[in-house]
């Protein structure tokens, strides 16, 4: 709480040459239900959230920005359990009022003549990639954009959740992260990229205090190296093209504490693993209707030595549908982790008009190694030995956007999302799960 107050005071006390205040109100309701042959369990979360963003352009070089939210909810525990953006946080005791600092940074624009050349210091949402880093991190970073090339590099560490209802997980404390990304257009709107990410934990975490289900960087040093390419994937940059594609191959190398499911114990081991991501999207006609498919593979092993895992800063959601909508690639209800996984999906999206858009997806999930667990939210699921089929996911979303709310000059967005996960033979101890999400957001 003191950190939140201090950051807000710093922003307010800054004397700007130009200041801009934006604020919005969001209300939402979500239900998660699991249904089996004998029982049904439900979790309901309701919230009203006010978010304010304050940006000051002190001069042509220096800019400050702070964004914070105040949330009223029926249950902070239920709300946090349904928030896929805070997987690395642990809920505190039940509460109905939450304060959350989202960003607070200082940015320096270099006078280099490039389209973008900035250094950012503070609590900043790093958007390197949905599969690498898409999270708020206390960091210093450097971003440069030219006509054909863009690159970024940064160093940071999550020091706090900046959320009055949560704390950082024990296994996520003391992790220093160093990242770099370079992207170059080898042809107009066709790019190749190289990603690198290094995570080291400088505090020693007692594995006796960590759940055996956890999979991620722990008490060690890990390096992710990836190479890939894309065209029109996360944004429709090329107005003349009706296709979009993305591919990426990533290697994970390092050593640290891994839970060996074969020996049922924590061990310090070397890790060598890999993952593959790919996607293809078509626009069959001049109408804003899109069809596409994604596939993903991540290695796994019972002893953990070949088990791929992500950094913990990923979101696994992106705007690859062709519309403005954002999709959860690994099913909203399941939210599978990219580890010991083979998955494929078919999706379709339609921008009906300027206001309405709809999208849907069907996806299938199997284990890469049927001797190792499947994972969701970086936690192992109890699986049947020998069965590979994790299950099937179904997603549907409809979004309405308007520039005016009745007679008021306020932008609004209404969203309905429904997701269903049907368990496969490998998860016979689990029940099918359904998530329904309703949301209304208005800019004030």
UniProtKB/TrEMBL annotation:
Keywords: Signal. Pfam families: Alginate_exp. Residues 220-435 form the Alginate export domain. It comes from Enterovibrio norvegicus FF-454. This is Alginate export domain-containing protein. InterPro entries: Alginate_export_dom, Alginate_Permeability_Chnl. It comes from the Bacteria. The lineage of its organism: Bacteria, Pseudomonadati, Pseudomonadota, Gammaproteobacteria, Vibrionales. Residues 1-19 form the signal peptide.
